[in-house]
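Hi, here's the filled form for the chain we discussed.

Project: internal
Contact: R.S.
Residues: 713
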Amino acid sequence: MSLVAREKKSATVEAMSSPTHSFNLRSWLLSWEIYLLVLVAAFLRLYQIHTTEFDGDQAMILGMARYAIEHGLWIATSNYASIRIVNPPGIIYLLLIPAWISANPVSAAIFTALCAILAVLLTYFFVRRYYGRLAATIAALLYATATKAVFYSRFSWNQNMLPLFVLLLFFCLFWGVVERRKGWFGPAVFLIGLLVQLHATGAYMIAPFLLAVCLAPKTIRWRDVLLGAVLLLISYAPYLIWEISTHFSDVAILLTPTNRPTLVDNWALVFYQLMISPYEVPFTNTHSLLYKLVPFIGWLRNTMTILLITAAVMALLKAVWPTKIATTAQQKTIPVLGAIGRWWLDLCSTPYRCGLLILLVWQLVMFALVRHSLPLYLHYFIIFMPGPFILIGIFIAKVVLWFRERGSWNVLVSAAMVLLSLFIVFAQFAGTTADVLDMVQGNFHDHARSNPYYNDLASLQHALTDADQLAQKQHLERVYIAADRANALAISYLASQMHTPTTIFNCKECLVLPTHTTGPVAMLVSPYSTFVDALLKQFTQAKLVDSPPRLGGDPFRLYVVSNPDQLPSARQTFSNQLQLFDTHLRLIKFNNASWQVSHWGFLHAKPLSFNSTYTYMMTASPASQSKLTSKGLCELSSLHPGDELLMAFRENSATLPLKVTVRYQESRPYDLPFGPLALETGVDQITPWTTLKIMNGNGATLLSPATGVAPAH
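And the returned structure, exactly as it came back:
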């Protein structure tokens, strides 16, 4: 069956006032291009998916889904947005499916990739239904091979689910506006609500929705309005309960001025163009496979931009140009408002033009982001996908059909357009394949991919598995993990699946050790936590046994650690939580700076639990110079009685004693009570800072300055 044959059949749709679109599933499934689409989309989105990104956001949303399943909770919110409001719970409800199947984060990544593959198929079905087989094949292949579309399909994140539901929304809109059928309004309202739950940019879909309402008001029934209101209320009910309980604090944040200047710039256009480009400009990663292809695919960026602009102009002309032109005499006798009304009635009576106008409005609302007061990010433009590829597919198909209908020589031009389309698809596929291979092979710099740095799931799981197996093989009682801001939440989620008891601590200024009676333990140190290495070398017997590799950055370091110090009797006890072993500080030099280290021990136990932390903050200042304050912070995922804590303070005075105060805080997930139910939220329940006091009631202790100690190397 020819790809162009369907174009001839659908060409008359432009002139039809009430088009009918046949849907023969059996004949469509016999179309060879569908299987090519599935093969290409699946390869690019599922190849070595175990190397998916797994940072704090991914750990948080999947952890919330698992937490809800394990504790039988309804879900009121998801995680925090960048503007510090809590998002609605849509993404968590979606992730209940993979979370129920497996606790392994790979399941969530596969689920996201499968939804993206389904979005590619829906692109094909949507365009084929309304614009023909050739347009559908070109649009879907362009979308299937687009670099950024593939990138956002390979890891779980709220907004990565947008394209699937955007396409479902446009099926609803075209059902009412183009096919003039009833029953589309209620599902469309629900889908817009879901899009807003996934990301605030989903609100931009209100524009094509309102246009659809204006173009096809007779297809909307009162029961459709009621259905939409009920579906919207049900989907937002848990979130409304949360907002009511917080007196609509998130709404207040949204309505509060940002105190930032309003900017008018071209960043929206830059990001929009990047979504259809094979690489960022300038592309400076000389170690990547994609860099080697840049000379051969560099033309894609401008070519896709020109095709999109041309396609948008063509669609605009077809949408606004009336099908019946009034004579000059009629134009003179018709008032301005009458002419506009006549044009509007003509537009509403031409479903084909209405459909093009809705597609255009979907893309044109992007210009609203040209004026902004908040920073723009590339993922804000996922909401417009796969619109550009649909417009380009329609344009190329129309050009091919126009030339094919005008004689034998013009057939060569139409064939050239088809070949150009195939050439673009092949070039995109090559560039995207190189980008995927770069990601799974680590041909990138982790600090350039994310802030503070990028973490992939395979590397994290490999490092934790190595530590777990080392502990089991050598009969070590515990595993200690020195985490940092980039990986703490991800490691905390994965550590709950380890067989060996685990303690995770934030290693910026502290080191947690077992007591000397425990014997050797395994300690996994984060890639850039070199201060921990210095502390281990200075104060323990540590043997480096492995360096688990990471994609795109420095490796972890795995030690077997023994604590050689036999503890003296505790000098002071703080609120039955913490004890001070030595009133003398010890000196360590690191990165051309001097640090003074204090020695403490834990007295109480706290279990490892999802998103729960226990934090000690120590403030040290010279006894007679309170302005020279140094702080040490240690955040732990669990507490084990008998464990020791080394807290370091940057040296301010080498001769004066330090006055040290200790404060303690706990953070755990907050479940909102609602009658007999409990609603999970993405909010932390944080206790106030409590100052720990010595048994004599004093809230501070004096530590003697460090004496000469050999520096760490």
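Let me know if anything looks off before we file it.
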